[in-house]
Amino acid sequence: KAEETMEMKYSELAELDKKHFFHPTTSFKQQQAQGPKFIFTEGKGIYLKDVRGKTVIDGLSSLWNVNIGHGREELGIAAMKQMKQLAFSSTFATNSHERVIELAEKVAKMAPGDLNMTFFTSGGSEANDTAFKTVRHYWQLKGKTAKKKIITRNKSYHGVSMGASSATGLPAFRAFPSLAPDFLYVDSSIEDLERLIAEEGADTIAAFVSEPVQGSGGVNPPPEDYFKKIRALCDRHDILFIADEVITGFGRTGTTFGMNNYDTVPDIMVIAKGITSGYAPLGGMVISEKLKNELIELSDGVFMHGYTYSGHPMCCAVALENLRIIEDEKLIENVQNMGDEFQKGFKWLADKHDVISDTRGIGLLGAVEIMKDKETKTRFDEPVSVKVIEEALNHGLLGRSIIYEGQDTLAFAPPFCINKEEVETVISIIDKSMTTVLNQLK
Ligand code: PLP
Asked: Where does the sequence pass through the membrane (predicted)?
């Protein structure tokens, strides 16, 4: 009886979903044919529960963002307290409020080097666009008006606003006419970047942007010493270095920021996701003290860029509470410890399954690459990762399959609160699912 009721509730909602909800990043045809796979109603820790009563492990922390895990009431209380006290006030021009000041100070304390001043946005795409506009504005103020181009890496993901999608090195996201001009794409080798700078001329290049570890493009850690060399190259050519820490920021890789792993301080850091663990939409651009001082000195008018929700009080209050929890509960230490278990689990999977050609990752960010024959680097005709992810769902694990650019990758990034037993469950579900799918292919 209870099951019937749940099924009815699902059907009603699924019909309405198909009728009225324009899903992000979705195939229209698939949505209409299948309806929503899950309609989630509750979350607790690493688990999500749906309207039909099924519980699944949120193996990607939803969109690599629910870092502290689901169901933390403290964040709701912080949001309510702030809404009761001051739901909204503008931060345009010289207006300010307590929470945004406290959060900007907190971010400056956490950020490496002299990254000290934050511009807030509602998410990562807006934050990237803000960074791109800021670097171009900066060079304009310095009288170097030709320095407009932004260099970005192939397989990078920076979001979907006009600037951010133009900066994204996955062509699938750029399949729209008339995106933003002056973005250039390079492979992940220093030589390729040097060649491009020489061809284009450093006097036309404003900035280089990169994720510390590429996320949506397949979980790709950088080549050895990559960022140290990038930093030196950028300095040599007067090119600003933007690190997109949207996934890696606030602990995902076992250090506060991804760039800490590579002892490199960018000129600008882009943040979002983990700053609120997804409990409220918030992002930002953090700039260095040097850049800040130059902007103050050179600017002769108003910086004509700001979002209504730049520094939204409730989002800032939620971020402060989220960062308090990450610190008080030593969650970044847990990312290190559980990250070791998680990465070990991937290596164990690779030993067991011949078709795993590579395992990649750092902290609680990891991926498994699949090939039909790793010796000859032959792929399966159809991506196997899609089927493995589907099968894993049958065993109660949500993950992502990444098939851009001919890849066949399984990606996982569980919440920071995961424990050893839960890591083992995740690995054993991947193992079982791979076995099932590979047997079907025989
Ligand atoms: N940058 C990176 C590295 C991301 O992974 C994402 C989102 O996945 C973004 C930017 C875009 O952020 P948002 O979706 O909040 O606009």
From this structure: none
